[in-house]
Amino acid sequence: MRYVLGFDGGGTKTECVLMDAAGKIVARSFSGPSNPYRVGVESATREIEKASDLCLQEAEAGAGARRDAVAAIGAGLAGTGNPELKEGMRASLAAAFPGATVSVFTDLEAALAAAGEGPVIVLVAGTGSAAIGRNSRGQIWRTGGQGPRLGDDGSAFDIGSRAVARAMGEQERLGRNSTLGSKILEELGYASWQELRERATSDPDSVFPLVFPIVASLADAEDTAARQVLLQAASELSSLVNAVAEHSGQGREEIRIVKMGGMVGRCAFFDVQLDAALKRILPQAQIGSLQMSPAEAAARAARH
Prior knowledge:
single chain; 5-stranded mixed β-sheet; 47% helix
Protein backbone atom coordinates (compact mmCIF):
# COMPACT_ATOMS: atom_id res chain seq x y z
CA MET A 1 0.00 0.00 0.00
CA ARG A 2 1.15 3.54 -0.72
CA TYR A 3 0.91 6.22 1.97
CA VAL A 4 0.99 9.98 2.45
CA LEU A 5 2.67 11.65 5.42
CA GLY A 6 1.53 15.00 6.77
CA PHE A 7 3.44 17.13 9.28
CA ASP A 8 2.76 20.17 11.44
CA GLY A 9 6.07 21.38 12.82
CA GLY A 10 6.77 24.28 15.15
CA GLY A 11 9.23 25.49 17.74
CA THR A 12 8.10 23.01 20.41
CA LYS A 13 6.83 19.85 18.72
CA THR A 14 6.05 18.08 15.46
CA GLU A 15 2.80 16.25 14.74
CA CYS A 16 2.75 13.56 12.05
CA VAL A 17 -0.18 11.75 10.45
CA LEU A 18 -0.04 8.76 8.14
CA MET A 19 -2.80 8.65 5.52
CA ASP A 20 -3.65 5.60 3.41
CA ALA A 21 -4.64 5.51 -0.26
CA ALA A 22 -8.30 6.06 0.65
CA GLY A 23 -7.54 9.24 2.59
CA LYS A 24 -7.98 7.64 6.03
CA ILE A 25 -5.66 8.55 8.91
CA VAL A 26 -4.16 5.26 10.08
CA ALA A 27 -1.53 6.53 12.54
CA ARG A 28 -0.51 9.66 14.39
CA SER A 29 2.68 10.51 16.29
CA PHE A 30 4.64 13.36 17.86
CA SER A 31 8.29 14.34 18.15
CA GLY A 32 10.39 17.40 18.98
CA PRO A 33 10.66 20.82 17.27
CA SER A 34 11.04 21.06 13.48
CA ASN A 35 11.11 24.80 12.85
CA PRO A 36 14.30 25.11 10.75
CA TYR A 37 14.63 28.80 11.61
CA ARG A 38 15.04 27.88 15.29
CA VAL A 39 16.72 24.46 15.23
CA GLY A 40 18.29 24.24 11.75
CA VAL A 41 17.43 22.10 8.73
CA GLU A 42 19.34 19.05 9.90
CA SER A 43 17.74 18.92 13.34
CA ALA A 44 14.27 19.67 11.93
CA THR A 45 14.64 16.82 9.44
CA ARG A 46 15.68 14.42 12.20
CA GLU A 47 12.53 15.16 14.20
CA ILE A 48 10.36 14.71 11.12
CA GLU A 49 12.03 11.38 10.39
CA LYS A 50 11.54 10.32 14.00
CA ALA A 51 7.81 11.13 13.89
CA SER A 52 7.33 9.46 10.50
CA ASP A 53 9.09 6.27 11.61
CA LEU A 54 6.77 6.03 14.62
CA CYS A 55 3.74 6.28 12.32
CA LEU A 56 5.11 3.81 9.79
CA GLN A 57 5.68 1.27 12.57
CA GLU A 58 1.91 1.26 13.16
CA ALA A 59 1.00 0.72 9.50
CA GLU A 60 -0.12 -2.54 7.89
CA ALA A 61 -2.15 -3.55 10.96
CA GLY A 62 0.88 -3.14 13.19
CA ALA A 63 3.25 -5.04 10.91
CA GLY A 64 4.94 -1.79 9.91
CA ALA A 65 5.78 -0.20 6.57
CA ARG A 66 9.03 1.01 5.05
CA ARG A 67 9.81 4.56 3.99
CA ASP A 68 9.67 3.57 0.32
CA ALA A 69 5.92 2.99 0.82
CA VAL A 70 5.49 6.77 1.18
CA ALA A 71 4.27 8.30 -2.10
CA ALA A 72 3.91 11.91 -0.96
CA ILE A 73 4.78 14.21 1.92
CA GLY A 74 3.11 17.43 2.96
CA ALA A 75 5.02 19.38 5.61
CA GLY A 76 3.57 22.52 7.19
CA LEU A 77 6.57 23.97 9.01
CA ALA A 78 7.11 27.17 10.94
CA GLY A 79 10.13 29.11 9.70
CA THR A 80 9.70 28.17 6.04
CA GLY A 81 8.39 31.57 5.01
CA ASN A 82 12.07 32.10 4.28
CA PRO A 83 12.53 30.77 0.68
CA GLU A 84 16.02 29.49 1.43
CA LEU A 85 14.89 27.50 4.44
CA LYS A 86 11.85 26.22 2.56
CA GLU A 87 14.01 24.85 -0.26
CA GLY A 88 16.51 23.50 2.24
CA MET A 89 13.76 21.53 4.01
CA ARG A 90 12.28 20.29 0.72
CA ALA A 91 15.66 19.01 -0.45
CA SER A 92 16.47 17.45 2.92
CA LEU A 93 13.12 15.63 3.10
CA ALA A 94 13.43 14.46 -0.51
CA ALA A 95 16.75 12.87 0.41
CA ALA A 96 15.28 11.25 3.52
CA PHE A 97 12.29 9.85 1.63
CA PRO A 98 13.52 8.81 -1.84
CA GLY A 99 10.73 8.44 -4.36
CA ALA A 100 8.23 10.56 -2.43
CA THR A 101 6.85 13.83 -3.80
CA VAL A 102 7.63 16.49 -1.19
CA SER A 103 5.56 19.64 -0.65
CA VAL A 104 6.61 22.16 2.01
CA PHE A 105 4.15 24.77 3.27
CA THR A 106 4.42 27.32 6.03
CA ASP A 107 2.67 26.38 9.25
CA LEU A 108 0.27 29.24 8.59
CA GLU A 109 -0.68 27.90 5.17
CA ALA A 110 -1.36 24.48 6.68
CA ALA A 111 -3.41 26.05 9.47
CA LEU A 112 -5.50 28.05 7.02
CA ALA A 113 -6.25 24.90 5.04
CA ALA A 114 -7.20 23.15 8.29
CA ALA A 115 -9.67 25.92 9.14
CA GLY A 116 -11.99 24.95 6.27
CA GLU A 117 -13.64 26.91 3.50
CA GLY A 118 -14.85 30.50 3.50
CA PRO A 119 -13.72 33.71 5.19
CA VAL A 120 -11.65 32.98 8.28
CA ILE A 121 -8.76 34.31 10.36
CA VAL A 122 -6.42 31.85 12.06
CA LEU A 123 -4.54 33.06 15.12
CA VAL A 124 -1.44 31.05 16.03
CA ALA A 125 -0.45 31.38 19.68
CA GLY A 126 2.45 29.07 20.45
CA THR A 127 6.21 29.38 20.78
CA GLY A 128 5.80 32.07 18.11
CA SER A 129 2.75 34.10 17.13
CA ALA A 130 1.10 35.00 13.84
CA ALA A 131 -2.24 35.46 12.11
CA ILE A 132 -3.40 34.56 8.62
CA GLY A 133 -6.76 35.26 7.02
CA ARG A 134 -8.75 34.60 3.87
CA ASN A 135 -11.63 36.81 2.74
CA SER A 136 -14.72 35.91 0.70
CA ARG A 137 -12.78 36.50 -2.54
CA GLY A 138 -10.10 34.01 -1.54
CA GLN A 139 -7.46 36.69 -0.98
CA ILE A 140 -4.98 35.89 1.80
CA TRP A 141 -3.16 38.16 4.25
CA ARG A 142 -0.77 37.30 7.07
CA THR A 143 1.14 39.07 9.79
CA GLY A 144 3.61 38.07 12.49
CA GLY A 145 5.61 34.87 12.53
CA GLN A 146 8.91 36.67 12.01
CA GLY A 147 10.73 35.11 14.95
CA PRO A 148 11.60 36.56 18.36
CA ARG A 149 14.16 39.01 17.02
CA LEU A 150 11.59 40.75 14.82
CA GLY A 151 8.34 40.24 16.65
CA ASP A 152 6.26 37.26 17.82
CA ASP A 153 4.41 39.60 20.17
CA GLY A 154 2.15 37.78 22.61
CA SER A 155 3.83 34.41 21.97
CA ALA A 156 5.04 31.96 24.61
CA PHE A 157 8.58 33.16 23.90
CA ASP A 158 7.50 36.78 24.40
CA ILE A 159 5.54 35.98 27.55
CA GLY A 160 8.51 34.13 29.01
CA SER A 161 10.88 36.99 28.21
CA ARG A 162 8.56 39.58 29.77
CA ALA A 163 7.90 37.44 32.85
CA VAL A 164 11.61 36.92 33.47
CA ALA A 165 12.33 40.63 33.02
CA ARG A 166 9.51 41.51 35.41
CA ALA A 167 10.62 38.98 38.03
CA MET A 168 14.24 40.14 37.87
CA GLY A 169 13.12 43.75 38.23
CA GLU A 170 11.01 42.88 41.28
CA GLN A 171 13.96 41.08 42.87
CA GLU A 172 16.20 44.11 42.38
CA ARG A 173 13.57 46.53 43.66
CA LEU A 174 12.36 44.52 46.66
CA GLY A 175 15.53 42.67 47.55
CA ARG A 176 13.68 39.34 47.38
CA ASN A 177 11.98 37.19 44.78
CA SER A 178 8.29 37.59 44.09
CA THR A 179 6.06 34.54 43.80
CA LEU A 180 6.54 34.70 40.04
CA GLY A 181 10.32 34.92 40.34
CA SER A 182 10.58 32.11 42.88
CA LYS A 183 8.47 29.81 40.72
CA ILE A 184 10.47 30.52 37.56
CA LEU A 185 13.80 29.71 39.24
CA GLU A 186 12.40 26.69 41.06
CA GLU A 187 10.51 25.13 38.14
CA LEU A 188 13.34 25.65 35.64
CA GLY A 189 16.02 24.50 38.09
CA TYR A 190 18.23 27.61 38.21
CA ALA A 191 20.07 28.56 41.41
CA SER A 192 20.20 32.27 40.56
CA TRP A 193 19.10 34.89 38.06
CA GLN A 194 22.68 35.15 36.88
CA GLU A 195 22.62 31.47 35.92
CA LEU A 196 19.31 31.87 34.11
CA ARG A 197 20.53 35.04 32.37
CA GLU A 198 23.62 33.28 31.04
CA ARG A 199 21.55 30.40 29.69
CA ALA A 200 18.99 32.74 28.12
CA THR A 201 21.75 34.73 26.46
CA SER A 202 23.33 31.66 24.85
CA ASP A 203 20.11 29.73 24.07
CA PRO A 204 16.92 31.74 24.64
CA ASP A 205 14.69 29.03 23.10
CA SER A 206 15.68 26.70 25.95
CA VAL A 207 14.45 29.21 28.55
CA PHE A 208 11.70 31.63 27.58
CA PRO A 209 9.05 29.31 26.04
CA LEU A 210 9.33 27.07 29.13
CA VAL A 211 8.27 29.98 31.34
CA PHE A 212 4.79 30.19 29.80
CA PRO A 213 3.31 27.16 31.66
CA ILE A 214 4.60 28.64 34.93
CA VAL A 215 2.95 31.99 34.20
CA ALA A 216 -0.25 30.20 33.12
CA SER A 217 -0.44 28.18 36.34
CA LEU A 218 0.13 31.24 38.52
CA ALA A 219 -2.45 33.26 36.59
CA ASP A 220 -5.08 30.61 37.26
CA ALA A 221 -4.04 30.79 40.92
CA GLU A 222 -4.82 34.57 40.79
CA ASP A 223 -1.24 35.84 40.88
CA THR A 224 -1.40 39.52 39.89
CA ALA A 225 1.96 39.73 38.13
CA ALA A 226 1.28 36.63 36.02
CA ARG A 227 -2.14 37.93 35.07
CA GLN A 228 -0.76 41.28 33.98
CA VAL A 229 1.79 39.58 31.72
CA LEU A 230 -0.97 37.49 30.11
CA LEU A 231 -3.31 40.46 29.72
CA GLN A 232 -0.65 42.23 27.68
CA ALA A 233 -0.14 39.10 25.57
CA ALA A 234 -3.88 38.82 24.87
CA SER A 235 -3.93 42.42 23.68
CA GLU A 236 -0.93 41.88 21.40
CA LEU A 237 -2.41 38.72 19.88
CA SER A 238 -5.72 40.44 19.21
CA SER A 239 -3.79 43.19 17.42
CA LEU A 240 -2.45 40.60 14.97
CA VAL A 241 -6.00 39.50 14.18
CA ASN A 242 -7.12 43.10 13.84
CA ALA A 243 -4.32 43.84 11.35
CA VAL A 244 -5.36 40.91 9.14
CA ALA A 245 -9.05 41.86 9.38
CA GLU A 246 -8.36 45.45 8.33
CA HIS A 247 -6.14 44.48 5.40
CA SER A 248 -8.62 41.90 4.14
CA GLY A 249 -11.57 44.29 4.35
CA GLN A 250 -13.35 42.20 6.96
CA GLY A 251 -12.99 44.51 9.91
CA ARG A 252 -16.68 45.37 9.99
CA GLU A 253 -18.10 42.06 8.77
CA GLU A 254 -18.95 38.85 10.54
CA ILE A 255 -15.85 36.71 10.56
CA ARG A 256 -14.80 33.35 11.93
CA ILE A 257 -11.69 33.34 14.13
CA VAL A 258 -9.85 30.10 14.77
CA LYS A 259 -7.34 29.86 17.62
CA MET A 260 -4.54 27.32 17.62
CA GLY A 261 -1.13 26.70 19.15
CA GLY A 262 0.36 25.43 22.37
CA MET A 263 -0.89 28.38 24.43
CA VAL A 264 -4.55 27.71 23.68
CA GLY A 265 -6.38 25.68 26.29
CA ARG A 266 -3.50 25.77 28.78
CA CYS A 267 -4.80 28.53 31.06
CA ALA A 268 -8.44 29.32 31.83
CA PHE A 269 -7.66 32.94 32.68
CA PHE A 270 -5.74 33.51 29.47
CA ASP A 271 -8.37 31.83 27.28
CA VAL A 272 -11.08 34.08 28.69
CA GLN A 273 -8.98 37.23 28.32
CA LEU A 274 -7.93 36.38 24.76
CA ASP A 275 -11.54 35.79 23.69
CA ALA A 276 -12.54 39.06 25.31
CA ALA A 277 -9.75 40.93 23.53
CA LEU A 278 -10.77 39.42 20.19
CA LYS A 279 -14.41 40.36 20.77
CA ARG A 280 -13.43 43.95 21.55
CA ILE A 281 -11.85 44.39 18.12
CA LEU A 282 -14.31 42.20 16.16
CA PRO A 283 -17.60 42.13 18.13
CA GLN A 284 -19.42 40.00 15.54
CA ALA A 285 -16.72 37.36 15.30
CA GLN A 286 -17.47 33.70 15.89
CA ILE A 287 -14.54 32.13 17.75
CA GLY A 288 -13.97 28.44 17.09
CA SER A 289 -11.47 25.69 16.40
CA LEU A 290 -9.87 24.04 13.39
CA GLN A 291 -11.90 21.55 11.35
CA MET A 292 -8.90 19.19 11.25
CA SER A 293 -5.31 19.20 12.43
CA PRO A 294 -2.80 21.15 10.30
CA ALA A 295 -0.86 17.90 9.87
CA GLU A 296 -3.94 16.27 8.32
CA ALA A 297 -4.51 19.32 6.11
CA ALA A 298 -0.89 19.11 4.92
CA ALA A 299 -1.33 15.42 4.10
CA ARG A 300 -4.53 16.08 2.16
CA ALA A 301 -2.86 18.88 0.20
CA ALA A 302 0.05 16.58 -0.68
CA ARG A 303 -2.35 13.76 -1.64
CA HIS A 304 -4.21 15.95 -4.11
